[in-house]
Design brief:
Blueprint lengths: L4 H6 L12 E12 L4 E9 L3 E5 L9 E5 L5 E10 L2 E6 L5 H14 L7 E11 L2 E10 L3 E5 L9 E5 L6 E9 L2 E6 L5 H11 L8 E2 L8 E2 L1
């Protein structure tokens, strides 16, 4: 696999497998999915038909089964073969058409129809519309937006703000509403570093965010 001498030694002499061309990626965010169903983001560093190198913000060990999904929804299953600091190397279970996937990704990004990868979450947020503040359940989130539970219809382009656990309020607008759910687009997207720091900080909290009243007449606090 695609190991430097140092990383080959750290991985216990794993045989070099990535013999095809490696394609450098310009800070492409992708989604990783673990066997537990947990989803997080990663930052691709390079990719080939046999594997990839990526930056992650959660600890992963060699041998961990993993699925990587690109922003185009192409996915590949494999295993972590080495981990060093915040970087991991993944060997795919079967070769993938890496060049075609990246070309598709670049085309979609150029046409403006490429969405940041979304990860499933189980947390609550504080939605504010004008003077009304409501606790909402959040089903998934990306660097650019999120999906919330919204029993009452919300009009498209409605201005609002959303407060996520551990973060200040962020401006947003309603993109869509249907079947009791709404999509919000953030006025200012997360950059990867900020998103990673926030998610890494949430790791220690195993229970979904809860709302604890701060006293009569005051807003609830997100944990």
């Amino acid at each position: 696999m695609f190991l430097s001498r140092t990383k080959r030694a750290a991985a216990g002499g794993v045989e070099e497998r990535r013999r095809s061309v490696r394609h450098s990626t310009a800070a492409h965010a992708a989604k990783i999915r673990l066997q537990s169903g947990r989803e997080e983001l990663c930052l691709l560093r390079d990719i080939s038909a046999e594997g990839l190198r990526a930056e992650v913000y959660i600890p992963l060990e060699a041998g961990t089964p993993i699925e990587v999904e690109l922003r185009t929804a192409h996915s590949a299953a494999g295993r972590v073969v080495w981990a060093a600091g915040k970087e991991i190397g993944v060997a795919f279970d079967a070769p993938i058409p890496a060049a075609a996937m990246l070309a598709h990704c670049s085309f979609d990004q150029g046409s403006g129809c490429l969405r940041p990868p979304r990860i499933r979450v189980a947390m609550r947020g504080l939605l504010r519309i004008d003077a009304k503040a409501t606790i909402v359940s959040i089903g998934n989130i990306s660097q650019a937006g999120l999906q919330i539970a919204a029993p009452e219809p919300l009009a498209p382009r409605l201005a609002c703000s959303i407060t996520l656990p551990g973060l200040p309020a962020r401006g947003a607008s309603v993109c869509w509403w249907r079947d009791g759910h709404a999509g919000l687009m953030l006025v200012e997207s997360f950059d990867y570093a900020a998103f990673a720091a926030w998610r890494a900080g949430r790791r220690a909290q195993t229970a979904p965010a809860e709302c604890v009243p701060r006293g009569k007449g005051t807003e609830p606090k997100l944990l």
